[in-house]
């Protein structure tokens, strides 16, 4: 009896072996994926090391790793699990490979910008302007200041107009006027960005004369792009507020305007703030409207209503197309500015996600 109990205890303590049931273990696909990535990256690195003129090809490494994983997981599953399960894993790997293939341009872009932009990503780059700089050195502080001032001004202009427009469309708008506003918002969403810059420049040229370039003109050009985005995102968020909340407030005798202020807007504030943040990220990289309306300068300018104002996208453009006596210095500044712009946009998108997560209304008790 003791021997039987010992055997039962020993059998109960043994870990089940997934391969005894003709199934791969949970970690096996991940181990196969890790091995494929290691082999793929080492193979591409050896090829790039043999050819000193060519750098490391991140796209080739990722693509080769995906192909190796697809082949390896199919063979491994076919040998252990049989044809049916191997076919299922093959289709899953192909779907995942299609996703990786769609990401390859983004991976290549990020890798290229990081590698080329890290050469000038230093303290001087963020504390100096380009005034009196004709070769190496200099920085982007004047462009950062201009970008922040024009983007903040565009946000101050766009958010109240866009939010009030969306409130009208959702809460009050009926009939031809509301349909006309919706149609115009859709049209504004699809206009080229340079048209917004030409519009802002034309307005200020009619007032101050031809050739005028001001930071406030660039802010207005950005606001023309931002307004339809804010309207659309805010309208969608306001439509998600349940009508039962509005009806409950009306039943208590609360006026419509107070219902909107105290019930509708607080309920949808997380989505509205997320839409505003994404709209800011959308206009942050605009080059054409700012080049037309705000111009470019190497000086630090804190005033939106006096003189030209530099922006980060325009600086990147100018550094790349107007290379001076030392072309590599201009190219390095352009890549570093592009890297800075990408990091700012990524930070804004992260902020939008955090806002959506932490400021969303709590539905639980």
UniProtKB/TrEMBL annotation:
One of its GO terms (molecular function) is phosphate transmembrane transporter activity. Keywords: Cell membrane, Membrane, Phosphate transport, Transmembrane, Transmembrane helix, Transport. The keyword Transcription does not apply. It is a multi-pass membrane protein. The chain crosses the membrane at residues 30-50, 56-80, 92-119, 139-169, 181-208, 214-231, 263-284, 334-356. GO terms for cellular component: plasma membrane. InterPro entries: MetI-like, MetI-like_sf, Phosphate_PstA, Phosphate_transprt_permease. Its main location: membrane. GO terms for biological process: phosphate ion transmembrane transport. Residues 144-352 form the ABC transmembrane type-1 domain. It is found in: Cell membrane. Pfam families: BPD_transp_1. Belongs to the binding-protein-dependent transport system permease family. CysTW subfamily. Part of the binding-protein-dependent transport system for phosphate; probably responsible for the translocation of the substrate across the membrane. This is Phosphate transport system permease protein PstA. It comes from Homoserinimonas aerilata.
């Amino acid at each position: 009896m003791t021997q039987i109990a010992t055997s039962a205890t020993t059998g109960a303590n043994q870990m089940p072996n997934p391969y005894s049931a003709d199934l791969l273990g949970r970690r096996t696909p991940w181990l196969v994926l890790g091995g494929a990535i290691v082999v793929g990256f080492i193979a591409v690195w050896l090829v790039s090391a043999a050819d000193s003129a060519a750098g490391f090809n991140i796209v080739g490494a990722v693509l080769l790793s995906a192909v190796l994983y697809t082949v390896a997981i199919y063979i491994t599953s076919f040998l252990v699990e049989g044809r049916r399960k191997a076919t299922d894993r093959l289709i899953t790997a192909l779907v995942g490979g299609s996703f990786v293939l769609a990401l390859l341009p983004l991976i290549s872009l990020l890798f290229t910008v990081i590698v080329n932009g890290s050469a000038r990503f230093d303290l001087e780059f963020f504390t100096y302007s380009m005034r009196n700089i004709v070769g190496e050195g200099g920085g982007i502080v004047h462009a950062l200041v201009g970008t922040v001032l024009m983007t903040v001004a565009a946000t101050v202009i766009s958010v109240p107009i866009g939010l009030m427009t969306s409130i009208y469309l959702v809460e009050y708008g009926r009939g031809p006027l509301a349909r006309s506003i919706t149609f115009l918002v859709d049209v504004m969403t699809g206009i080229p960005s340079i048209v917004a810059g030409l519009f802002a420049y034309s307005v200020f040229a009619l007032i101050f004369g031809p050739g005028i370039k001001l930071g406030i003109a660039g802010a207005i050009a950005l606001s023309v792009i931002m307004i339809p985005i804010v309207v659309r995102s805010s309208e969608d968020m306001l439509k998600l507020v349940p009508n039962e909340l509005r009806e409950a407030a009306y039943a208590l005798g609360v006026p419509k305007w107070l219902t909107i202020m105290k019930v509708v807007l607080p309920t949808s504030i997380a989505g509205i703030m997320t839409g505003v943040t994404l709209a800011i990220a959308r206009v942050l990289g605009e080059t054409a409207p700012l080049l037309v309306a705000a111009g470019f300068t190497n000086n630090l300018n804190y005033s939106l209503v006096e003189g030209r104002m530099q922006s980060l996208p325009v600086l990147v453009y100018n550094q790349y197309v107007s290379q001076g006596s030392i072309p590599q210095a201009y190219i390095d500044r352009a890549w570093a500015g592009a890297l800075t712009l990408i990091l700012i946009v990524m930070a804004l998108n992260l902020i939008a996600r955090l806002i959506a997560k932490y400021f969303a209304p709590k539905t639980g008790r």
